[in-house]
Write a structure and sequence with these properties.
With about 80 residues, chain A is α+β, with helices and mostly antiparallel strands. In chain A, about 55% of the residues lie in helices and about 15% in strands. In chain A, strands 1-2-3 form a 3-stranded antiparallel sheet. In chain B, about 30% of the residues lie in helices and about 25% in strands. Chain B is built from 13 helices and 22 strands. In chain B, the strands form 3 sheets. In chain B, strands 5, 15, 16, 17, 18, 19, 20, 21 and 22 form a 9-stranded mixed sheet that branches. An 8-stranded parallel β-barrel of chain B has the order 6-7-8-9-10-12-13-14, surrounded by 6 helices. In chain B, helix 5 packs across helix 6 and helix 7 runs parallel beside helix 8 (about 225-245). The chains are: A alpha+beta (about 80), B alpha/beta (about 450). Chains A and B meet through strand 3, helix 2, helix 3, strand 4 and helix 4 of A and strand 1 and strand 2 of B. Strand 3 of chain A pairs antiparallel with strand 2 (about 10) of chain B, so a sheet runs across the interface.
C-alpha cells in the first residue's frame, strides 16, 4: 500500500479532502474520515477494524467488508 | 455507549455532468406491501418470492373495462393468458367477467381445465396444431387464423367435423410505428388480408366472422391504434360489400404499456407512459367516427400487461456485496434473470426494506447464476446495502411468471395478497422431483464409478 500519497492529502474535519498533487478534491463521511486518519497514521486494515469495532455499534463481518471496500475505493482514486 | 455505525464512503467531486432531466431518485424505503411486512413474506415463503395483489388486479381491470365500456357499447375483454397464466390470476379475471385469450394448445387446455367453456375462448397465435383446431371448433371457440397454410388446416379440421366453422383472420398493417409487426397475420396494404378472406369465403367448411390484430407490444403511441382501427374498418366494409356478409367482431389485441421503465428512456414512466384511457380513446373514438350505430360489431381488447404488471412485486435478498475492479459497487441477490425475463428490456423500480444511512451510488445488481449475463439491474442508485437487505423489485406481474425458466436454480413461491386481508401461496417453490420427474436414464447408463 503506497501511503506517501495519503500523507500529502489535506483533510478537513468536515470531510473535505484536497489532493495538492493532482488538484482533485473528495468528500467523505465521518466513518470514512476515521479510516483515512488511521491509514495516514500507518495503521493496518486489521488494526483499523478493531478501532472501528471499539468505537461503533457494528459487527466484525460488516466492518471487515466495509474497510476492504473503502480501501478498494481509495485505490480506484489512486490515493494509495 | 457506542456510536451509530454508518458505512464509510469517499467520493470524488466532479462538475459539469448534471442530468438535465433532473429525475429524482427514490430515497425512501418500503417496509410492507398492502400492510404485510416484507420480512414476513420471506420468513414464511422463502426468498426470493413473487407477490401479487388480488386488489390491484381487480382495480386495474375495472378501471380499464369501465372506461372502455363507457366509450363503446359492445365492449368485451379477454384475458391474455401468456401475460400471466397462473390459475389464481386467471381466476380473478374470469370472476371479473373476462374470457380467455390463448395462443397455444397448452394455454387452451389450461383455460378449459379452469372451467372456461370453449365458447368463451379466443384462440390466437401463429401455430395451431390440427388436433387443437378440431377441439376448438368442436367446442365453439373463436379462432383467428394467421396464414394461408392455417386456413387449409382449419378447413381440414372443419371437414373432419363436417361443420362450417366460423373463423376470424389476424391482420397486420403499417400504423406508423417501428417495428411493424408484419410476421403475424395477413397484410392489409398488399391485399393479402383480402385474398385470405376470399379463400375462406370460397371454402365449403369455413365462414368469416371477425378480424383480429395486435399491432405491437408496450406501445407508447396511441395514434397507432387509431390508424389500425381506420384500416380495419375500411377492410371490414370492403369484405362486407364484396361477400355480402356481416363481420360480428373486431379484436384489437393488446400492447398497452405499464408503468415499467423501458431501457433507454430518459423520462420516468409517469411522464413517458400515457394513461391507458388515451389508448382506449384512440380506438373507441375512431370506431364511433367511422361506424354507423347499426353496424357496431363486438369489439375485443386482450389487455394483459396494463392490468397485471403493476400488481406484482419480487422480494429478493442481498447475499453479497462486491466492489468491482473499476470501482463500481455491485450486489449479488438470490433472484436471477432466469426468473426475470423482462429484465432484458426494463429497468425495474428498486426499493429497500429499511432505512439505510450512507452515500448513494450507482450500483449493479447481479443475480445468483454462474453466467455473465445474469445482470438483474444494470444501474440502481442505492445507499450502501448490508448483506441480508431485502430488495423489492417492481412492476413484476406481467410475463415473468410465464417466461421464467428453471435454469440452475429452482423457481420460487408465488403468493397472492387476497382482498380479505390474507396471504396465500398460489404456486409453491419447485422441488428436485418437479424437475427430474419427466426424465429417465437408459439402463446401461445407470452405473458409474470414479
Amino acid at each position: 500500500m503506497d501511503k506517501d500519497k495519503l500523507a500529502v492529502l489535506a483533510v478537513s474535519e468536515s470531510g473535505f479532502i484536497f489532493d495538492p498533487v493532482t488538484g482533485h478534491s473528495y468528500t467523505a463521511n465521518a466513518t470514512g474520515l476515521k479510516i483515512l486518519e488511521l491509514l495516514k497514521a500507518g495503521k493496518e486494515p486489521d488494526e483499523i477494524r478493531s478501532v472501528l469495532l471499539d468505537e461503533y455499534d457494528s459487527t466484525e463481518d460488516e466492518v471487515s467488508v466495509d474497510v476492504n471496500d473503502f480501501i478498494e475505493n481509495l485505490k480506484k482514486y489512486f490515493l494509495i | 455507549m457506542k456510536k451509530e455505525y454508518i458505512k464509510p464512503y469517499i467520493r470524488k467531486q466532479t462538475a459539469g455532468v448534471m442530468n438535465k432531466f433532473g429525475v429524482s431518485y427514490n430515497k425512501g424505503h418500503r417496509e410492507e406491501i398492502e400492510g404485510f411486512h416484507i420480512g414476513d413474506f420471506t420468513e414464511k415463503f422463502g426468498s426470493p418470492v413473487f407477490v401479487l395483489s388480488e386488489k390491484v388486479i381487480r382495480e386495474r381491470y375495472r378501471k380499464i373495462y369501465s372506461y372502455f365500456s363507457s366509450k363503446y357499447p359492445k365492449a368485451k375483454m379477454s384475458w391474455s393468458y401468456k401475460t400471466n397464466y397462473l390459475d389464481a390470476v386467471c381466476s380473478v379475471l374470469h370472476q371479473e367477467g373476462e374470457t380467455a385469450e390463448v395462443v397455444s394448445d397448452f394455454e387452451y387446455q389450461k383455460a378449459r381445465r379452469l372451467g372456461v367453456p370453449g365458447k368463451k375462448i379466443i384462440y390466437n397465435g401463429p401455430y395451431k396444431p390440427l388436433e387443437s383446431l378440431i377441439v376448438a371448433f368442436k367446442e365453439g371457440a373463436m379462432v383467428n387464423l394467421d396464414n394461408f397454410d392455417e386456413i387449409i388446416k382449419a378447413e381440414e379440421a372443419a371437414k373432419k367435423l363436417d361443420i362450417k366453422a366460423s373463423v376470424g383472420i389476424r391482420v397486420n398493417m403499417d400504423t406508423g410505428v417501428y417495428p411493424q409487426w408484419s410476421r403475424f397475420g395477413f397484410n392489409i396494404e398488399n391485399n393479402n388480408a383480402f385474398n385470405a378472406v376470399k379463400r375462406i369465403q370460397h371454402s365449403e367448411y369455413l365462414h368469416l366472422e371477425g378480424i383480429h390484430c395486435h399491432i405491437g407490444t408496450f406501445m407508447m403511441e396511441p395514434s397507432a391504434y387509431k390508424e389500425a382501427v381506420k384500416k380495419i374498418v375500411q377492410l371490414m366494409r370492403r369484405i362486407e360489400k364484396e361477400f355480402e356478409i356481416s363481420i360480428s367482431y373486431l379484436d384489437f389485441g393488446g400492447g398497452f404499456p405499464s408503468k415499467n421503465i423501458l431501457k433507454g428512456t430518459y423520462l420516468p414512466p409517469e411522464v413517458a407512459i400515457q394513461p391507458v384511457e388515451n389508448f382506449i380513446d384512440a380506438i373507441t373514438d375512431t370506431l364511433l367516427e367511422e361506424l354507423e350505430p347499426k353496424e357496431y360489431p363486438e369489439v375485443y381488447l386482450e389487455t394483459g400487461r396494463a392490468i397485471v404488471d403493476e400488481a406484482g412485486w419480487l422480494i429478493t435478498t442481498v447475499d453479497a456485496v462486491k466492489r468491482l475492479p473499476d470501482g463500481t459497487k455491485s450486489y449479488i441477490i438470490d433472484a436471477g434473470v432466469n426468473l426475470l425475463y423482462t429484465s432484458a428490456w426494463y429497468n425495474y423500480h428498486v426499493e429497500i426494506d429499511r432505512e439505510i444511512h450512507g452515500a448513494y451510488e450507482n450500483s449493479i445488481i447481479y443475480g445468483p447464476l454462474c453466467m455473465n449475463i445474469d445482470v438483474v439491474v444494470e444501474s440502481a442508485f442505492l445507499p450502501p446495502l448490508p448483506k441480508g437487505t431485502r430488495l423489492i423489485l417492481s412492476p413484476m406481474g406481467a410475463y415473468n411468471m410465464t417466461q421464467w425458466m428453471q435454469f440452475i436454480r429452482y423457481r420460487p413461491a408465488v403468493v397472492m395478497i387476497l382482498e380479505d386481508g390474507t396471504v396465500e401461496q398460489i404456486r409453491r417453490p419447485e422441488t428436485l422431483q418437479d424437475i427430474v420427474g419427466p426424465e429417465s436414464v437408459p439402463e446401461k447408463l445407470k452405473r458409474f464409478q470414479f
